[in-house]
Write a structure and sequence with these properties.
4 helices, about 110 residues, alpha+beta, Nonspecific Lipid-transfer Protein, Chain A, 5 strands
Length: about 110
C-alpha cells in the first residue's frame, strides 16, 4: 500500500488500492473482521472474480472470520507484525478456513 494506514477505514481503502485483480481472478471468498481495542467494530470484505468490495458490518456466511486488535491489524498491514507470529501469539485469531490467511496476502501489493 502506498500510504501506511493509521485507522481502520484507511486500512480498507489502502487494501482496495493495493488489490491485484489478476491474482484473485478465480477467488470467491467472504471475510469478516472483528476488531477489538481502540477502533472496535466489525468490517467485511468480499473478493469475487477479480473484484474486491468492503464495508462496515457483518457479512453473511463468511469463509473466515479474523478477530484482532485494531492496532495490531494496522501493524500487520504496515509490515510491522508478521501474520504467522500474530496467529501463534494469539494476537490474530482465525475462525473458519485457516488457509485463507496465506491466500489473502497474495491478493495485494505488499507494503513498500
Amino acid at each position: 500500500m502506498a500510504d501506511q494506514p493509521t485507522n481502520i477505514p484507511e486500512s480498507f481503502t489502502g487494501l482496495q488500492a493495493a488489490f491485484l485483480p489478476d491474482r484473485a481472478a478465480t477467488v470467491n471468498k467472504r471475510l469478516q473482521f472483528n476488531f477489538t481495542g481502540a477502533e472496535e467494530g466489525v468490517w467485511h470484505m468480499e473478493v469475487a472474480n477479480g473484484a474486491m468490495t468492503y464495508g462496515q458490518g457483518a457479512i453473511e456466511n463468511p469463509n473466515a472470520t479474523a478477530t484482532v486488535d485494531s492496532e495490531d491489524w494496522l501493524k500487520l498491514l504496515r509490515g510491522e507484525l508478521n501474520p504467522m507470529s500474530a496467529v501463534i501469539s494469539g494476537k490474530l485469531k482465525i475462525k473458519g478456513d485457516p488457509m485463507l490467511l496465506a491466500q489473502f496476502q497474495t491478493w495485494f501489493q505488499p507494503p513498500a
